[in-house]
């Protein structure tokens, strides 16, 4: 392997575990792009990340840029020589500025063809710069390009420009071969972070004789860094950390005699620590009386521990290979017991007052400064949830009751301490009070789903409350002028819109007994706007913004890897927020199947060709005035006959919402369409014949338009 090795390690304060993998990959991509941009392309580039470091390494990087030959342009060629054929003053001035002596004019100056014509030019050799001089700029650019979920301002700067980052940087090891890359980060009021050739291991452990834990050590390569860290209890490779973590969890499960609830959490927990271990902790049996959701909030969301389904035990991930004296275990148990004791106290306090009786307190909780309190929002949600449930044949009274108290847990002690229990706490309290399942589950589920992913509410009443919540939020905050702009979305309105679309898309299939009646996004948001009683002009303006906002999000709800390109756009060409989302999805699914099985290439091409031929006025006529008696060519007669049969079949299937057979029937027109365009001159000299043929195409276009813009399929595929 030719070239040098590049090694960059950015040592930070602890990075959130769910950021590590994305930051490391983003750093790798940014470094690779920087190397390519500067013509220092590496043979390989890779990355690693832990809670305290981001590492990028490259191999086979050239020691300098390759030399270049560039074309330098001067004045237009027409002024390069005078009337006598000698080099003009303009040409001579240009040549001397490029360091060319007069004796070399003839050999160096030449005519260069450009899109703007001929110009005087020269070819100039540009030697490549040494890589060590370019790498500092690449490193700065890469650090600034790392995609940060949230940037921290830590009073740092690079080259007088502020440098926010995921967490404060504490050391940098940056090597190109055996040379240190000159790089520094200045810190206001503190010591600058200067790149060197030293790294740091585990803060509390080391296996190197005579070395204190947390001491620095020299590195000279990726292999040296990996081995040096391993001897100091840091595992650089994420896959190896995950394997060690699963082994440690397995030992604890064996000791407990039960499997813990690990799931996919190990993929994130491996980045909580640099040398994974685990200890089995226990808490008193009395806390098993707490609802499991509350225990899991304490153990999983707050402490990042793994609970057991039925035992009063948990597994704590540690940053040490062992815990011989039990200090880590006892510390974890003390924290868990204290948190569970708090949770039980708040749970018991909240149960003293029925949830519905706390509703007046919502008057003191601000929804938005221009929109009033959550008490007012609860009233609007009641009406909207009842209307939605009634439309689908669900229990409107239960939906309204649930919507009226869905936000009451915001005033309670439990949600005040454990904010992630919003909705869940209200549902649990109502269950304890003995309310019907349709009511307490609707409150419990009303934050579902968080977007396009996740579980739906378990009942149509819960879905009605969820839709009422999203629609009221969208309508109100758009009225308040809080619509998202650019990347800013402080109220998560994009997620709210996607959640609303997801429920409307999947509700008919999720609740088979309530398939019909689910409103379109437009109908739902119109009803939500009614709750705010805006004046006519304001309402029209907000409705227009909401339409654009929701329509922009509709395609995201329908794209699937198996969907042929262009099918979604083809259907959405005439299906927007005013149509049933579930029905739109069914059309897309069935059209995708039809495109895979039928000749839609011909139909897409024909749709494009027809739209080029027809004027808007003729298209709007939809074939009115078509006279079969004026069809004299066999091909046009055949197309007209087939069109009449297929048109009747398609419209009948559409009326019965059987879209796949309709789209299959449409595909049978392909041979007749192909023959028509091969054999028939549409723009015939006889005006009556020409008008009749255009009417035939307009009728064909009208049938295509019942499906959508079929030309989108061809356009996207090409």
Description:
With 718 residues, this protein is an alpha+beta fold. It has 5 domains: 4-64 and 131-231, Alpha-Beta Plaits; 68-126, no CATH class; 238-350, no CATH class; 359-557, Hypothetical protein af1432; 567-717, Orthogonal Bundle (Isoleucyl-tRNA Synthetase, Domain 1). It has 27 helices and 19 strands. The strands form 6 sheets. A 5-stranded antiparallel β-sheet has the order 2-3-1-9-10, covered by helices on one side. The mean pLDDT is 92.
Write the layout of secondary structure elements.
Blueprint: E1 4-12, H1 17-37, E2 44-50, E3 53-61, E4 68-76, H2 89-97, H3 105-108, E5 110-114, E6 117-126, H4 131-145, E7 156-158, E8 161-162, E9 169-176, E10 179-180, E11 184-187, E12 193-194, E13 198-200, E14 216-218, H5 222-231, H6 238-256, H7 266-269, E15 277-282, H8 292-302, E16 306-307, E17 313-318, H9 327-350, E18 366-368, E19 372-373, H10 374-392, H11 396-405, H12 413-417, H13 424-432, H14 437-445, H15 460-479, H16 493-510, H17 521-530, H18 536-553, H19 567-572, H20 581-597, H21 600-613, H22 616-621, H23 634-655, H24 659-667, H25 670-679, H26 687-707, H27 711-717
Antiparallel strand pairs: 1-3, 1-9, 2-3, 4-6, 5-6, 7-8, 7-11, 9-10, 11-12, 13-14, 15-17, 16-17, 18-19
Helix pairs in contact: 1-4, 8-9, 10-11, 10-15, 11-14, 11-15, 13-14, 14-15, 15-16, 15-17, 15-18, 16-20, 17-18, 20-24, 21-25, 21-26, 21-27, 23-24, 23-25, 23-26
């Amino acid at each position: 392997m030719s070239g040098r090795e590049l090694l960059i390690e950015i040592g930070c304060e602890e990075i959130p575990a769910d950021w590590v993998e994305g930051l490391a990959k983003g750093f790798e991509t940014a470094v690779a792009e920087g190397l390519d941009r500067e013509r220092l392309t590496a043979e390989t580039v890779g990355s690693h990340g832990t809670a305290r470091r981001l590492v990028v390494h490259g191999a086979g990087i050239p020691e300098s840029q390759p030399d270049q030959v560039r074309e330098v342009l001067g004045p237009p060629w027409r002024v390069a020589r005078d009337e006598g054929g000698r080099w003009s003053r303009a040409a001579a001035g240009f040549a001397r500025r490029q360091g060319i002596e007069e004796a070399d004019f003839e050999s160096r100056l030449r005519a260069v063809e450009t899109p703007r014509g001929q110009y005087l030019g020269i070819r100039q050799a540009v030697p490549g710069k040494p890589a060590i001089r370019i790498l500092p700029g690449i490193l700065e650019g890469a650090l600034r390009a790392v995609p940060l979920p949230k940037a921290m301002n830590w009073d740092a700067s690079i080259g007088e420009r502020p440098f926010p980052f995921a967490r404060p940087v504490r050391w940098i090891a940056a090597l190109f071969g055996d040379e240190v890359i000159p790089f520094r980060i200045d810190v206001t009021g503190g010591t600058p972070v200067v790149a060197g050739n030293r790294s740091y291991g585990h803060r509390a452990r080391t296996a190197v004789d005579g070395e204190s834990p947390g001491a620095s050590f020299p590195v000279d390569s990726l292999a040296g860094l990996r081995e040096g860290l391993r001897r100091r209890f840091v595992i650089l490779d994420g896959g190896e950390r995950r394997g060690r973590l699963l082994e440690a969890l397995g030992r604890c499960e064996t000791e407990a005699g039960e499997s813990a609830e690990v799931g996919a959490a190990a993929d994130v927990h491996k980045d909580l620590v640099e040398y994974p271990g685990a200890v089995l902790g226990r808490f008193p049996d009395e806390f098993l009386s707490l609802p499991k959701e509350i225990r899991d909030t304490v153990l999983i969301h707050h402490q990042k521990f793994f609970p057991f389904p039925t035992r009063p035990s948990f597994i704590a991930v540690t940053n040490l290979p062992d815990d011989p004296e039990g200090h880590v275990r006892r510390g974890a148990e003390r924290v868990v017991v204290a948190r569970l004791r708090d949770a039980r106290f708040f749970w018991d306090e909240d149960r003293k007052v029925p949830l519905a009786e706390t509703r007046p307190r919502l008057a003191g909780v601000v929804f938005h400064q221009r929109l009033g309190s959550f008490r007012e929002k609860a009233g609007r949600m009641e009406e909207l949830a009842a209307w939605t449930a009634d439309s689908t044949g669900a229990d409107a009274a239960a939906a309204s009751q649930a919507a009226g108290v869905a936000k009451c847990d915001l005033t309670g002690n439990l949600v005040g301490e454990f904010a992630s229990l919003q909705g869940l706490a209200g549902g649990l309290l109502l269950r304890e009070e003995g309310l019907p399942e349709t009511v307490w589950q609707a409150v419990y589920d009303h934050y579902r789903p968080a977007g396009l992913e996740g579980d739906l509410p378990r009942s149509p009443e819960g879905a009605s409350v969820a839709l009422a919540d999203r629609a009221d939020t969208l309508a109100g905050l758009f009225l308040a002028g809080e619509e998202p702009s650019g990347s800013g979305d402080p109220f998560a309105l994009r997620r709210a819109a996607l959640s609303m679309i997801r429920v409307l898309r999947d509700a008919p299939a999720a609740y088979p007994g309530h398939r019909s009646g689910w409103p379109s996004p437009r109908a739902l948001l119109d009803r939500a706007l009614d709750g705010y009683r805006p004046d006519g002009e304001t309402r029209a303006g907000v409705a227009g913004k909401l339409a654009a906002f929701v329509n922009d999000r509709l395609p995201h709800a329908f794209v699937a890897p198996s969907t042929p390109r262009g099918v979604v756009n083809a259907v959405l060409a005439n299906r927007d927020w005013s149509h049933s989302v579930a029905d739109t999805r069914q059309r897309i699914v069935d059209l995708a199947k039809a495109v895979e099985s039928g000749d839609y290439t011909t139909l897409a091409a024909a749709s494009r060709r027809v739209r080029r031929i027809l004027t808007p006025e003729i298209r709007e006529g939809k074939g009115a005035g078509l006279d079969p008696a004026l069809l004299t060519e066999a091909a046009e007669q055949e197309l007209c006959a087939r069109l009449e049969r297929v048109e009747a079949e398609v419209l009948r299937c559409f009326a019965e919402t059987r879209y796949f057979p309709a789209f299959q029937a449409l595909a049978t027109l392909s041979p007749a369409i192909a023959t028509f365009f091969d054999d028939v001159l549409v723009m015939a000299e006889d005006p009556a014949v020409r008008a009749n043929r255009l009417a035939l195409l307009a009728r064909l276009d009208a049938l295509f338009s019942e499906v959508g813009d079929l030309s989108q399929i061809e356009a996207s595929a090409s």
